[in-house]
Amino acid sequence: MLTGGGDCPGLNAVIRAAVRKGERHYGDDFVGFRDGWKGVVEGLTTRLDVETMRGTLPRGGTVLGTSRTNPYKLDGAVERIAGVLDDQGIEAVVAIGGEDTLGVAHRLHQEEGVPLVGVPKTIDNDLSATEVTFGFHTAVQIATDAIDRLHTTAESHDRVMVVEVMGRHAGHIATYAGIAGGAAEILIPEERFDIDEVCRALVARHEKGRYASIVVVAEGAQPAEGSLTLADAEVDQFGHVKLGGIANVLAGEIESRTGFETRVTILGHVQRGGTPTAYDRVLSTRFGIGAIDAVHDGAFGQMVALRADQIVRVPLAEAVGELKTVDPDLVHGVAEVFFG
C-alpha cells in the first residue's frame, strides 16, 4: 500500500480498514511503501498489520508518509519499480491518491502490467469518478468553523476578512464553506473574478450598513484578463504551480480601492491536519474494505468510488480523465442569493 500527493484526514482509516479486512478475512500480508511512489522506486518499506494500525482511525495525516514523486520524471525509476515489487514478492498494489498518484498507477498498470487498485484521495473533491472524496467533509468543516470565528472579529472592527482555502482547479471547499459560513463573496477557479466587481459589491454592502464582510477565495482562483497580475510560481514534478497567497493580493487591492480595513487569514495546511469527521472516517473505512475486496476479485486497473451511496469500481482511466468542477447553479443559484 502507498499514499501519494497531499495528505488529508482519513488516509489512516483507509489503510486500517484494508489491512484489517485483508489480514483477518483473506489471510493477507501487507507491506507499506513509505513516501508515495518514492518509496516504491527506492524500496522504502514499513510493516503493516492489524496491531501496527491500532489507534489510527481518528489520526490525521498518513502513517506511511507521502510525496509528490513522479516516477516517469526520474531516469530508470519505472524499471526500478518492477524490480522492487518482484524482490518484495508483491502480488498487488493499493495506491491511495489523487489525479497524479492514480495517473501514475494507471500508466504502470497499462504499460507495465503492475496489478493495481486505486483509492481516490483529494481534499479538493475534484475527481469526477466519485461523488465524494474523504477529507473534503473535514476540510469544509474546518473552514466553516474558521469563518464563523472571523465574523465576530470582523464585526468588532468593521473589517473585510479575506479567507483563503484550498482548491487548485476546483472551488468545492470555498463554495461549501462560503455558503455554510455566510460569506459576502466566494471566488473560485472555475470562474475568473473581476476585482472591480468584487470591490463594488463590498462598497454596496457597506452602504447598506453592513460594515463587515467575509470574502472566501480558493487558492487557485484567477483574476479576469487585465484585472490583476499575479507573480509566477514554482512547479512540482507533475507540473503543478505551487499555490498560496492569492488572499494577500486580494486584500491589498480591496483596501486600496475601497478604503476598508482588510485582513487576511490563509487556512492552508490547517485544513489537511487533525482528526477526520465521523463522515470521513466511515467513507475511508468503506473505501479501504472496497479496495482489498477488489484486489481479491482481480479487479486490477480499477478504482473504488462512491456513487448513490454505494461503493463501486470504475476504471482508473475514468478516474483520472476529467476533473469534477463546481456546479454553476450552486454558485449562481444558491450562494449569490446571499451576496451583497
Number of self-contained structural domains: 2
Structural class: alpha/beta
How many beta-strand runs?
11
Largest sheet, in brief, is: 5 strands, mixed
Strand content: 15-25%
What's the helical proportion of residues? 25-40%
- Overall geometric form: elongated
In CATH's first tier, which class of the largest domain applies?
Answer: Alpha Beta
CATH topology of the largest domain: Rossmann fold
Q: Spell out the helices and strands N to C.
A: EHEHEHEHEHEHEHEHEHEEHH
The largest sheet has its strands arranged as: 1-4-5-10-11
What's the average pLDDT?
92
Secondary-structure arrangement, i.e. CATH architecture of the largest domain: 3-Layer(aba) Sandwich
Could you list the spans in which at least 5 consecutive residues all have pLDDT below 50?
none
Query: What value does the Rg take, in angstroms?
Result: 22 Å
> What is the rounded distance between the termini?
49 Å
Count up the helices: 11
